[in-house]
Design a protein that fits this description.
mainly alpha
Length: 93
């Protein structure tokens, strides 16, 4: 029996998985109150960065931010990874 194809969205990873830990940490050093402000700040900073790896990371983050809907952006867990680990450790004590 043929089943209709399921929506690709049903197979999508949770939104927090769309961004790596490194990408979230980079995002957290900027103003995250608004996706458009964040994009503008990262774009402005590109001209001041000489490190090729950092430039690559920033460009990947920008590509993802351009494609992330506002609602999904507002749901991202935007806090540095170290802080997240400390919070988890404290909450399990």
């Amino acid at each position: 029996m043929n089943h209709p194809a399921e929506s690709p969205a049903e197979y999508a990873l949770p939104f927090s998985m769309d961004y790596t830990v490194e990408e979230i940490n980079l995002i957290c050093i900027y103003n995250t109150s608004n996706r458009y402000i964040l994009i503008a700040e990262i774009e402005e900073a590109l001209s001041y960065v000489d490190d090729p790896e950092m430039l690559s990371l920033m460009q990947k983050v920008l590509e993802k931010l351009y494609a992330t809907p506002d609602q999904r952006f507002s749901e991202l867990p935007l806090f540095p990874a170290e802080y997240e680990d400390e919070t988890i450790e404290r909450s399990t004590l």
